[in-house]
Amino acid sequence: MSALDGLEVRRTTTAQQLADGLSERIMAGAFGPGDRLRESAIAAELGVARNTIREAVRILELTGLVRYEVNRGAVVIAPTKENVEALYTARERLETAAAARTPSSKQLDAITTAFDELVKATKTGDTGEIVDKDLVFHQRIVELLDSSRLDEFFAGLTKELRFYLTVLTKEEKPEEVVVEHQVILDAIRSGDRDKAVAEIRNHIDASVQRLEAML
Predict the structure, then answer these.
(1) Eight-state DSSP code of residue 102
(2) pTM for this one?
(3) Burial of 173 per CB tally in 10 Å (0-12, 13-18, 19+)
Protein backbone atom coordinates (compact mmCIF):
# COMPACT_ATOMS: atom_id res chain seq x y z
CA MET A 1 0.00 0.00 0.00
CA SER A 2 1.40 3.38 -1.01
CA ALA A 3 1.54 6.39 1.29
CA LEU A 4 -0.15 8.30 -1.56
CA ASP A 5 -3.22 6.05 -1.79
CA GLY A 6 -6.40 8.11 -1.82
CA LEU A 7 -4.68 11.34 -2.85
CA GLU A 8 -6.31 12.31 -6.11
CA VAL A 9 -5.25 15.24 -8.23
CA ARG A 10 -7.72 16.84 -10.60
CA ARG A 11 -6.59 18.62 -13.77
CA THR A 12 -7.40 21.92 -12.05
CA THR A 13 -5.40 21.07 -8.93
CA THR A 14 -2.78 23.70 -8.11
CA ALA A 15 0.56 23.21 -6.43
CA GLN A 16 -0.95 24.74 -3.27
CA GLN A 17 -3.77 22.20 -3.22
CA LEU A 18 -1.29 19.41 -3.76
CA ALA A 19 0.87 20.79 -0.94
CA ASP A 20 -2.19 20.80 1.32
CA GLY A 21 -2.86 17.15 0.49
CA LEU A 22 0.73 16.16 1.15
CA SER A 23 0.84 18.09 4.41
CA GLU A 24 -2.29 16.29 5.62
CA ARG A 25 -0.59 12.96 4.96
CA ILE A 26 2.51 14.09 6.80
CA MET A 27 0.39 14.98 9.82
CA ALA A 28 -1.43 11.65 9.53
CA GLY A 29 1.87 9.78 9.60
CA ALA A 30 1.81 8.47 6.01
CA PHE A 31 5.25 10.03 5.64
CA GLY A 32 7.45 9.68 8.69
CA PRO A 33 10.23 11.90 10.04
CA GLY A 34 13.24 11.71 7.73
CA ASP A 35 11.29 10.24 4.81
CA ARG A 36 12.25 11.60 1.41
CA LEU A 37 9.64 13.15 -0.85
CA ARG A 38 10.80 11.74 -4.18
CA GLU A 39 9.45 14.23 -6.69
CA SER A 40 9.75 11.97 -9.71
CA ALA A 41 7.99 9.07 -7.97
CA ILE A 42 5.15 11.28 -6.68
CA ALA A 43 4.73 12.88 -10.10
CA ALA A 44 4.55 9.47 -11.79
CA GLU A 45 2.09 8.03 -9.28
CA LEU A 46 -0.25 11.02 -9.33
CA GLY A 47 0.12 11.77 -13.02
CA VAL A 48 1.24 15.32 -12.35
CA ALA A 49 4.06 17.29 -13.96
CA ARG A 50 7.25 17.11 -11.94
CA ASN A 51 7.52 20.91 -11.93
CA THR A 52 4.16 21.06 -10.14
CA ILE A 53 5.40 18.58 -7.53
CA ARG A 54 8.57 20.59 -7.09
CA GLU A 55 6.55 23.76 -6.51
CA ALA A 56 4.33 21.95 -3.98
CA VAL A 57 7.39 20.71 -2.11
CA ARG A 58 8.78 24.24 -2.01
CA ILE A 59 5.53 25.37 -0.41
CA LEU A 60 5.89 22.64 2.21
CA GLU A 61 9.43 23.86 2.87
CA LEU A 62 8.04 27.29 3.71
CA THR A 63 5.61 25.76 6.22
CA GLY A 64 8.50 24.12 8.05
CA LEU A 65 7.32 20.58 7.33
CA VAL A 66 10.05 19.83 4.80
CA ARG A 67 13.70 20.73 4.52
CA TYR A 68 16.25 20.11 1.77
CA GLU A 69 19.31 18.03 2.65
CA VAL A 70 22.47 17.64 0.62
CA ASN A 71 22.39 14.47 -1.51
CA ARG A 72 18.90 13.58 -0.24
CA GLY A 73 16.61 16.30 -1.50
CA ALA A 74 13.31 17.06 0.24
CA VAL A 75 13.01 15.38 3.65
CA VAL A 76 10.00 15.37 5.96
CA ILE A 77 10.21 17.06 9.34
CA ALA A 78 7.30 15.83 11.44
CA PRO A 79 5.54 18.42 13.65
CA THR A 80 6.54 17.99 17.30
CA LYS A 81 5.28 19.35 20.58
CA GLU A 82 8.52 21.30 20.97
CA ASN A 83 8.16 22.92 17.53
CA VAL A 84 4.56 23.91 18.19
CA GLU A 85 5.37 25.39 21.59
CA ALA A 86 8.35 27.34 20.26
CA LEU A 87 6.36 28.75 17.33
CA TYR A 88 3.31 29.70 19.38
CA THR A 89 5.40 31.16 22.21
CA ALA A 90 6.97 33.56 19.71
CA ARG A 91 3.53 34.40 18.38
CA GLU A 92 2.10 34.97 21.85
CA ARG A 93 4.94 37.27 22.90
CA LEU A 94 4.39 39.47 19.85
CA GLU A 95 0.61 39.61 19.92
CA THR A 96 0.22 40.18 23.66
CA ALA A 97 2.82 42.96 23.56
CA ALA A 98 0.88 44.54 20.70
CA ALA A 99 -2.47 44.17 22.46
CA ALA A 100 -1.07 46.03 25.47
CA ARG A 101 -0.74 49.16 23.34
CA THR A 102 -3.44 51.71 22.55
CA PRO A 103 -4.26 51.64 18.82
CA SER A 104 -4.62 54.77 16.74
CA SER A 105 -7.95 55.26 14.98
CA LYS A 106 -6.30 54.16 11.73
CA GLN A 107 -4.91 50.99 13.31
CA LEU A 108 -8.25 50.21 14.92
CA ASP A 109 -10.00 50.62 11.58
CA ALA A 110 -7.47 48.23 10.00
CA ILE A 111 -8.10 45.57 12.66
CA THR A 112 -11.86 45.98 12.33
CA THR A 113 -11.69 45.71 8.54
CA ALA A 114 -9.55 42.57 8.85
CA PHE A 115 -12.15 41.06 11.17
CA ASP A 116 -14.97 41.90 8.75
CA GLU A 117 -13.02 40.20 5.95
CA LEU A 118 -12.55 37.15 8.16
CA VAL A 119 -16.30 36.97 8.79
CA LYS A 120 -16.94 37.10 5.04
CA ALA A 121 -14.41 34.32 4.49
CA THR A 122 -16.10 32.03 7.03
CA LYS A 123 -19.31 32.28 5.01
CA THR A 124 -17.56 30.84 1.95
CA GLY A 125 -16.48 27.68 3.79
CA ASP A 126 -13.13 27.93 1.98
CA THR A 127 -10.50 26.86 4.52
CA GLY A 128 -7.65 28.50 2.62
CA GLU A 129 -9.51 31.81 2.47
CA ILE A 130 -10.41 31.64 6.16
CA VAL A 131 -6.81 30.97 7.12
CA ASP A 132 -5.57 33.85 4.95
CA LYS A 133 -7.96 36.33 6.57
CA ASP A 134 -7.28 34.93 10.04
CA LEU A 135 -3.57 35.60 9.60
CA VAL A 136 -4.23 39.11 8.27
CA PHE A 137 -6.31 39.87 11.39
CA HIS A 138 -3.43 38.88 13.67
CA GLN A 139 -0.92 40.69 11.47
CA ARG A 140 -2.92 43.89 11.96
CA ILE A 141 -2.72 43.41 15.72
CA VAL A 142 1.05 42.97 15.57
CA GLU A 143 1.24 46.23 13.61
CA LEU A 144 0.25 48.02 16.82
CA LEU A 145 3.91 47.63 17.81
CA ASP A 146 4.83 50.18 15.12
CA SER A 147 7.88 48.23 14.02
CA SER A 148 8.44 47.23 10.42
CA ARG A 149 11.06 44.70 11.56
CA LEU A 150 8.58 43.00 13.88
CA ASP A 151 5.97 43.07 11.12
CA GLU A 152 8.44 41.22 8.88
CA PHE A 153 9.31 38.78 11.64
CA PHE A 154 5.64 37.93 12.21
CA ALA A 155 5.09 37.60 8.47
CA GLY A 156 7.86 35.02 8.51
CA LEU A 157 6.13 33.12 11.30
CA THR A 158 2.90 33.01 9.31
CA LYS A 159 4.54 30.76 6.71
CA GLU A 160 4.70 28.03 9.33
CA LEU A 161 1.56 29.11 11.20
CA ARG A 162 -0.45 28.72 7.99
CA PHE A 163 -0.08 24.95 8.10
CA TYR A 164 -1.08 24.57 11.74
CA LEU A 165 -3.92 27.06 11.35
CA THR A 166 -5.23 25.09 8.38
CA VAL A 167 -5.31 21.94 10.50
CA LEU A 168 -7.17 23.74 13.30
CA THR A 169 -9.62 25.53 11.00
CA LYS A 170 -10.69 22.28 9.37
CA GLU A 171 -11.73 21.03 12.81
CA GLU A 172 -13.73 24.16 13.69
CA LYS A 173 -17.14 25.43 12.71
CA PRO A 174 -17.08 28.83 10.94
CA GLU A 175 -19.11 30.43 13.72
CA GLU A 176 -16.52 29.29 16.26
CA VAL A 177 -13.78 31.04 14.33
CA VAL A 178 -15.82 34.26 14.33
CA VAL A 179 -16.56 34.13 18.07
CA GLU A 180 -12.91 33.50 18.97
CA HIS A 181 -11.83 36.62 17.11
CA GLN A 182 -14.84 38.73 18.05
CA VAL A 183 -13.90 38.71 21.73
CA ILE A 184 -10.37 39.86 20.87
CA LEU A 185 -11.69 42.68 18.67
CA ASP A 186 -14.23 43.76 21.31
CA ALA A 187 -11.54 43.96 23.98
CA ILE A 188 -9.27 46.06 21.76
CA ARG A 189 -12.09 48.37 20.71
CA SER A 190 -13.22 48.85 24.31
CA GLY A 191 -9.76 50.05 25.28
CA ASP A 192 -9.41 47.31 27.90
CA ARG A 193 -5.80 46.39 27.25
CA ASP A 194 -5.60 43.82 30.04
CA LYS A 195 -8.61 41.99 28.64
CA ALA A 196 -7.25 42.18 25.11
CA VAL A 197 -3.98 40.61 26.27
CA ALA A 198 -5.86 37.91 28.20
CA GLU A 199 -8.14 37.07 25.26
CA ILE A 200 -5.22 36.73 22.86
CA ARG A 201 -3.33 34.57 25.34
CA ASN A 202 -6.41 32.35 25.81
CA HIS A 203 -6.86 32.08 22.04
CA ILE A 204 -3.27 31.05 21.43
CA ASP A 205 -3.06 28.71 24.44
CA ALA A 206 -6.22 26.93 23.30
CA SER A 207 -4.71 26.46 19.83
CA VAL A 208 -1.54 24.95 21.31
CA GLN A 209 -3.53 22.52 23.45
CA ARG A 210 -5.59 21.36 20.47
CA LEU A 211 -2.51 20.91 18.30
CA GLU A 212 -0.65 18.97 20.97
CA ALA A 213 -3.66 16.70 21.35
CA MET A 214 -3.56 16.01 17.62
CA LEU A 215 0.16 15.31 17.70
Answers:
(1) P
(2) 0.74
(3) exposed
Distances (CA, A) of 6 to 21, 24, 130: 10, 12, 25
- Average pLDDT value over all residues in the chain: 88
Per residue in 71-116, pLDDT (tens digit) is: 888 998 767 788 889 999 999 999 999 999 999 999 999 999 999 9
Position 189, amino acid:
R
Decide if 215 contacts 81 (C-beta within 8 A): yes
HSE-CB of 133 using CA atoms within 13 angstroms: 24
- Dist CA 140 CA 113 (whole Å): 10
Q: Indicate the CATH number of 15-76 among 1.10.1760.20, 3.60.21.10, 1.10.10.10, 3.40.50.300.
A: 1.10.10.10
**What is the CATH code of the structural domain delimited by 81-214?**
1.20.120.530
Which contiguous run of DSSP H or E holds residue 76? strand 73-76
Please compute the mean of the pLDDT values over residues 56-79 and round it to a whole number.
Answer: 83
